[in-house]
Each structure stands twice: as structure tokens, then as C-alpha cells.
Design goal:
The chain has 661 residues and is an alpha+beta fold. It contains 23 helices and 23 strands. A hairpin with a 2-residue loop joins β2 and β3. This is AAA+ ATPase domain-containing protein.
């Protein structure tokens, strides 16, 4: 018998009942017919003990023949035009058939396990079914390393007349593939192959990628970098083990047992082979025959019986065949790096992250410091091959780099550039992510450090002042916070960056644990021009044909002494540019609207031009705010930091002067 999970061969050891429309027998009629008249059966039935079996088999064949022929006369014309009547759906949706279904707008492939129908009170077979219930399965992974089955269910409600097969919520894959010349199949294969290859690349079962699609778990849409990780996901997988009764009909497929527990089936004298848990008004046909004209709807599978106990075996990703790649479930749990939340992503909207040197090139670091950062960063990629100098196992195996200097000089951008250059996830944490009490800090740090180690991520604790400050005799709460951070940092095995603009307040214990410290000075006029030019290049690359900064406007911000006197840092420069663009876009829309009212135009211009006046107005507002804050505090930020002992921006700093273009 072919793949027919509803009817494992072990169920035929005792007396069984097969209800009309006799699906399992109709689907195997040709085999029954061939066997009755074959030489093999002649030899088999020549034995006296088998004479009764022979007689019964011939009676069964004679009984089924008119039913089968009547069904063929009705089904063949429909199959020729890829249409079907509702009461014949069970025939084309045969167990073992590959079918396309749509989940959250994404097509994917499942294998039919069973088809059952709920009937009206008249109880006429198939004629009075209100809807078909199709049980299917596909392949999913719980740990990113091995695959297991995932069950699905779809319903097809009753309809009148003929209906196009491709319009059904469950469509045989062979029908759709014939209509589009295999385009959908190629799309599904390509998507699933990229996903599996991504999971296999690091051999750890997770995938760093870019996502631009719906957040299926939480609603809304997400655009940004994510880490697909099944094992560490906090999303409920709703995993349910198969019961002993279910196991036999959900057993072997493609000669591999997938996460199935050994069946424990009690011996019974009489057993019906209709589906377990079937309600009284349910029937259970499946689909397809062996007719040559409909063979494309009925792929054959290995004999899938469950004879006795089996051991649990999982299918490794490297063992997956092309056909099994088709069956991958099109959703996965992922961690959004920007929001630091778990979500469910659709694999149809996932793309790989290509290695880019743009960010690292936009950094200006002392060459020796840049080499040291790269060396420490690359060491983490070598995992077990790197040597640890500490005599205590697991201690001091990570790399800790401290970035210190005034706000807006490129500390955070340095870490972002390093992570892009390494093509590794960036976990950027703040006090809000870690907490401020000793118990919370230690627990949260364990969670984030574990994720960073699992993903080989670059870990950044931004504005880490509260964790780095000196301990004091009377502040036990503060001391506990710093101690907890030190304790966890000591055993972290990854790449950790800490940033602060209050380096003078760092506890001495941190100083001895830092592998390298990079100091950033206030931006010079040359570096400020580099920052402006870097933003202009980025704007031209990403918004070409939509936004244009005028030549005079560029000259103004790059050469004006008044602009230089404002002493914008990198973050403030970005904000000024974004505000000037927003102002130019708003005025363009207003002008287009006014022109439209006069009948000369009805839409905004194709290209928005940012002029010098836009920058002047925004910079004037920024200058007023700077002057106001300085007047209140009587000192600028750099002077206040020096008085508090946080830092001295006029002194020479450590290993490097970091600058972002």
C-alpha cells in the first residue's frame, strides 16, 4: 500500500471496517486489479490455504470495479481542464500528494496526511458533505539544526458546480506547476534553500539577515536587521508531541523518521481504520487513483508503515533532499536588533546581508588602533582556536574595548562600522535593557551575554556610565551594581564595547579589565567637513533623483565661519541635515498645492532641492539653543565635564583619535 497514514498496515491484523466511499480501496483499485490477474497472485493463491483469500479478493475487485469506473467517467473530464466538483475533492487530494497552500500571503508546500468531511443529517456518502477538512504536514526546525514535522489544517467549504483547482485554498502542486511552468516551485525552492543555507553556514542554527516585511507575531511591519534563531526564541512554538494513536499514521516519510516517539498501541480485537478522533458524522476519503491520465496528481512515496517500535531520529539539515526543501515551513522566530524584541518573520521577505566595507572606511582612526580593533574582533571569529592567557578556565576569554570622549564624536558609529565589517549582529544595549538593581543587572546581563555568545555578536553597552562609576563606601546599592557588572563581564567570551563620555569616573577595577581604550577628542574643523561630506555622499547614494542639496548650500555648510563657530558634533550635524531636508520637502509640497489650486500643478516636484536658506534657518535655531543652555550654566558642555572630573577634552587621549566622516 502507498503512503496512507490513515491506514497503517498494522491495523489490518484484525477485522477492520472501511466506510463508503471506500477511499483507500478506490485509490488502490488498479493495484488490486493487477494483483488478481498477475502471475505472482497465481503462485500465491495456488496454495490450498489461500483459496478463500483469493475468492474474497476477486469478490472485492468485482465489487469495486463499477464504482471505480463510474468515478473515472466523472473525474477525467474535470482533470483535463484543471477543474473539480466539490464532492470529488477527496479523490484528487490523496494522502502523500504535495499541495500548495498560502500562509500570511506566502505560498508553500505541504504533504497531505488525510482528508475528512462533515456530512449533513442525510448521511449520504460525499454528496452531503458540508466541508472538507484537509490535514497536512510540512517540515520545521525547533533548534535550527534538525527538522521535524509541523501539522497544518485547511478547510474547503461546499460550492456548486465546477471550480478551478488553482483557486482552491489547497491545490495539488503538480497542477499549479503545469500552469506556470514551475515558476512557483522554483520560487519556493530558492527561498527555502537560502534559508537552510543561512542556518548551515555558521553550523550553529541561527541566521543573521535583513528583513523587510510583516511582524506576524506582534502585528505591524518591520524593516531592519534580525537574527533568526529557533533554539533561543522566546516565542511559544506550541509544540505538541504525537500521541500513541497518532504515531502510526504519522510515521515514516522519505525513509526518515522525524521526531516521532515509539508507538505504544494497545492490542484490540476489533479496530476501525477510519481516522482516530473521528466524530460520528465524519467520513474519511483521501484522494487520487492510478489512472494514466491523472498520474501527475498522484506522486508515489515509499511504503510508509510503522511495524513495531522505532527509535527517535531527527533529520539533519545536511541530509535534506530537494523535495524536502520544498516542504519547509515559511515562517521563523527572529530577534529584531533595533527593537530588541522577538517576532515571527516570513521567509519570503528575508534577504542576506552582504559584507560591506563602507562603514569601516568612513571611520578615521589611528592606523595602529584600527589594526588592534580588527585583530581583537577577528579573534572572536576563530572561536576555539584562540588562546586564553588566564589560568582560570573560561575567565578573561572575551575582548573588552572602551571608547571614551565627548558626545557625538563617533564612538557608537565606530562599533556599528566594526559589526558591519565583520558581518556580525550588533546587540546595542542601554541602561533600560539591563536595569539598575543588582539582581536585575546580573540576570539581564546573563541573558544578553548568552545571546551575544550564541550569535557571535558584537555587544555594545552604550552610555555605560552607571555601570562603570567608582564604588563608594556608603553607597552599597551602587557598589552591588558595579560588582555584578564586573562579575559577568569577567566571564563573557565575546566582543564587548563600552562607551562613555565620563571616563574620569570609571572604577579602577574596570581599567584593569579593558583590553584597549580609544579616546576621542572634540571634532576639528577638518573632521566636521568630513562628516558633512560623508552625509552628502550617503544622501546622493540613497535618495538620488528625489532629494538634492544645492551646490551653494554645500559650500555654505563646508566653508562658512559662522557654521564652524557653532561647533556641531556628528549627531547634531545629522539632525541639522535631516531637519533641513524635511523643511525643503514641506515647502515643496506647499508650493505644489498652491500651484494646483490655480490649475497649473497638482503634485509636488519630482526632485526636492535643499537650499542654503534651509540650512541657515535650522542652524540659527540650533545656535540659539546652544547659547541659551551655555548662558544658564555659564559653561559649555566640555568645560562642565572638566570641572566635574569626567574628562579633559583639551588633553591628549589614549590610543587613537576616532572620527566618523
Amino acid at each position: 500500500m502507498d503512503y496512507y497514514p490513515q491506514h497503517p498496515t498494522s491495523s489490518f491484523d484484525d477485522e477492520v471496517t472501511i466506510e463508503e466511499p471506500f477511499a483507500v480501496l478506490i485509490h488502490h483499485f488498479q493495484k488490486i486489479n493487477e494483483f488478481v490477474f498477475s502471475e505472482e497472485s497465481s503462485d500465491y493463491f495456488s496454495q490450498p490455504a489461500q483459496a478463500l483469500v483469493c475468492a474474497h479478493l476477486k469478490i472485492l475487485r468485482d465489487f469495486l470495479k463499477p464504482i471505480y469506473e463510474e468515478l473515472q467517467s466523472a473525474i477525467q473530464p474535470a482533470i483535463q481542464v484543471n477543474a473539480i466538483k466539490f464532492d470529488l475533492l477527496w479523490y484528487i487530494l490523496r494522502p502523500g500528494t504535495d499541495v500548495y497552500i498560502i500562509t500570511d500571503g506566502i505560498p508553500h508546500v505541504c504533504v497531505i496526511e488525510s482528508v475528512s468531511g462533515k456530512r449533513k443529517k442525510s448521511m449520504k456518502p460525499t454528496k452531503d458533505v458540508k466541508k472538507w477538512s484537509i490535514r497536512m504536514w510540512c517540515l520545521d526546525t525547533a533548534d535550527g539544526l534538525t527538522m521535524s514535522r509541523k501539522r497544518r489544517r485547511r478547510y474547503i467549504k461546499s460550492f456548486n458546480g465546477m471550480r478551478d483547482m488553482v483557486s482552491l485554498p489547497v491545490c495539488p502542486a503538480s497542477v499549479w506547476d503545469a500552469l506556470d511552468a514551475g515558476a512557483r516551485r522554483a520560487q519556493v525552492l530558492r527561498r527555502n534553500s537560502e534559508y537552510l543555507d543561512g542556518l548551515q553556514n555558521n553550523q550553529k542554527g541561527h541566521m543573521h539577515c535583513f528583513y523587510d516585511g510583516p511582524d506576524i507575531e506582534n502585528g505591524g511591519r518591520h524593516r531592519g536587521k534580525v537574527v533568526i534563531d529557533h533554539e533561543n526564541s522566546e516565542i511559544d512554538k506550541n509544540t505538541r508531541f504525537l500521541s500513541p494513536d497518532e504515531h502510526a499514521k504519522f510515521a515514516k516519510y522519505d525513509n526518515v523518521y522525524l521526531r516521532d516517539q515509539p508507538p505504544i498501541i494497545p492490542k484490540r480485537r476489533r479496530r476501525s481504520v477510519t481516522p482516530p478522533y473521528r466524530r460520528k458524522r465524519s467520513i474519511s476519503p483521501a484522494s487520487s487513483s492510478s489512472s494514466s491520465s491523472s498520474e501527475n496528481l498522484q506522486p508515489d512515496y515509499p511504503n510508509n508503515q510503522c511495524e513495531g517500535p522505532i527509535g527517535k531520529k531527527e533529520l539533519g539539515l545536511n541530509e535534506i533532499t530537494e523535495h524536502q526543501r520544498l516542504l519547509i515551513w515559511p515562517q521563523a522566530p527572529a530577534f529584531a536588533l533595533s527593537t530588541k524584541k522577538w517576532m515571527t518573520v516570513s521567509l519570503g521577505h528575508v534577504s542576506r546581508i552582504e559584507r560591506s566595507d563602507d562603514s569601516i572606511k568612513n571611520l578615521q582612526l589611528d592606523p595602529s588602533a584600527a589594526q588592534i580593533i580588527k585583530a581583537l574582533s577577528m579573534q572572536q571569529d576563530q572561536s576555539g582556536d584562540s588562546w586564553g592567557a588566564d589560568f582560570i578556565e573560561g575567565k578573561g576569554a572575551g575582548q573588552v574595548i572602551l571608547l571614551h570622549g565627548p558626545p557625538g564624536v563617533g564612538k557608537t558609529y565606530t562599533v556599528e562600522g566594526i559589526s558591519e565589517w565583520l558581518r556580525r549582529p550588533l546587540l546595542s544595549l542601554t541602561v533600560a535593557d539591563i536595569g539598575i538593581t543588582e539582581d536585575t543587572v546580573e540576570q539581564e546581563l546573563m541573558k544578553w551575554f548568552d545571546l551575544a555568545e550564541a550569535w557571535n555578536a558584537v555587544l555594545l553597552v552604550d552610555e555605560a556610565d552607571i555601570f562603570l562609576e567608582q564604588r563608594k563606601n556608603r553607597d552599597l546599592s551602587r557598589n552591588g551594581l558595579v560588582t555584578a557588572f564586573l562579575r559577568r563581564m569577567e566571564y563573557f567570551r565575546g566582543l564587548l564595547f563600552l562607551t562613555t563620555n565620563r571616563v574620569g569616573q570609571i572604577d579602577d577595577a574596570f581599567v584593569s579589565r579593558v583590553h584597549m581604550a580609544i579616546g576621542y577628542k572634540k571634532l576639528s574643523p577638518e573632521f566636521r567637513r568630513n562628516i558633512w561630506e560623508g552625509f552628502f555622499r550617503k544622501l546622493e547614494r540613497e535618495r538620488a533623483g528625489k532629494v538634492l542639496v544645492g551646490r551653494s548650500a554645500k559650500k555654505f555648510v563646508l566653508t562658512s565661519e559662522w557654521v564652524e563657530e557653532i561647533e556641531l558634533n556628528g549627531r547634531e550635524t545629522r539632525n541639522v541635515l535631516q531637519t533641513a531636508i524635511a523643511l525643503a520637502e514641506f515647502e515643496s509640497i506647499e508650493a505644489a498645492g498652491a500651484s494646483g489650486e490655480r490649475g497649473t500643478a497638482s503634485a509636488s516636484p519630482q526632485v526636492v532641492v535643499v537650499e542654503e536658506d534651509h540650512f541657515r534657518r535650522v542652524l540659527k535655531m540650533s545656535e540659539k539653543f546652544h547659547d541659551y543652555v551655555t548662558a544658564i550654566r555659564r559653561e559649555d558642555e566640555s568645560q562642565r565635564a572638566k570641572v566635574r572630573g569626567d574628562r579633559d577634552d583639551d588633553a591628549k587621549v589614549g590610543a587613537a583619535d576616532g572620527r566618523s566622516k
